[in-house]
Amino acid sequence: MERTREVSVEDFVAGLRAFERDYITKERVSEYCAERRLRDDSLRPYLLFRGDRYTRNLVYRDPLFEVMVICWEPGQRTPIHTHNGQLGWMLVERGGVFVTNYKYLSCDTPENQNVVGIDCLAGSTRVELEPLDSGVVGEGGPVSTVDKIQTIHRIGCAEGSRERAVSLHVYSIPFESCVAFDLEKGQCFRRTLFWDTQYGKPVEAQETAPKKTIPLLRSS
Predict the structure, then answer these.
(1) Is the terminal CB of the chain with fewer CB neighbours within 10 Å at N or C?
(2) Residue 216 has what pLDDT?
(3) At CA 88, angle to CA 161 and CA 185, rounded to 5?
(4) How confident is the model at residue 1, as a pLDDT?
(5) What is the rounded CA–CA span in Å between residue 51 and residue 72?
(6) What is the DSSP letter of 65?
(7) Backbone dihedral angles phi then psi of residue 106, each to the nearest 5 degrees
């Protein structure tokens, strides 16, 4: 189903915050996202492209929801990574991105998964994943999700693409780091996440930027 109802970023976030009064489920938020598409003019403050890597641009953050925009040049992609067992939803607003899902099979430090608050301490020197499926999510197309069962994937803009891509990501709850995998070396490590911009401003300028009227938690 194509997302045809255009809304502003502010209205989209306000709708998400309404879910905080009740249980936040994968299905309820998926249905909400599947009906909406962000207006181009509203998305513009969060667009930043770099030639050397994709950029992560924070739109909104509170204790239950995190919303960000990722900007992709052709050929840019994430490492294979986890999501700390959280729920996640991705909407493609411009261009198209590929998504490849993986299944964890084994590693040489399974005891590192028994830790409170995160999915794994990582640090394995022998880890095995199985590719499950791969596909392209196009502009205005369906919502792509991660959940507590399927949490490992890689996203990117295809090398041969003729256009940039922009994707919107929603997470519940927010997280500060994830496990990233290097399958060539058979290793995994804990990766601290970063922002290129926060609330439409470069990260370096955050200390002097005026505060939003909606309380936001800022990443360290």
Answers:
(1) C
(2) 31
(3) 65
(4) 57
(5) 9
(6) -
(7) -165, 165
Q: What is each CA distance from 8 to 31, 38, 93, in whole angstroms?
A: 17, 6, 13
Phi, psi of 18 (to 5 degrees): -65, -25
- As given in the structure block, the two tokens for residue 187 are 């290793």
- Residue 171: predicted pLDDT: 97
Question: Which two three-digit tokens encode residue 77?
Answer: 């992609």
Q: Which domains does the chain have, with CATH numbers?
A: 5-200 (2.60.120.10)
Angle at 86 between CA 115 and CA 203, to 5 degrees: 100
Chunk the chain into consecutive blocks of 10 residues (it has 220) and report each block's average pLDDT, rounded to whole numbers: 83 96 95 94 96 97 97 97 95 96 96 92 96 93 93 93 95 95 96 95 61 31
Instruction: Return the pLDDT at 205.
Output: 52
Per-residue burial over 87-102, b = 16 or more CB atoms within 10 Å of its CB, e = otherwise = bbbbbbbbbbbbbbbb
What is residue 174's predicted lDDT score, i.e. its pLDDT? 95
**Residue in the structure block whose two tokens are 């002097």:** 208
Q: How many CB atoms lie within 10 A of CB 186?
A: 15
Beta-carbon contacts of 177 under 8 Å, excluding residues fewer than 6 positions away, are: 84, 118, 190, 191, 192, 193
Two structure tokens written together for 117: 């608050």
Cis ω before 173 (30° cut-off from 0): yes
pLDDT score of 161: 87
Half-sphere exposure of 148 (CA within 13 A, CB side): 6
Angstrom distance (rounded) from CA 2 to CA 10: 21
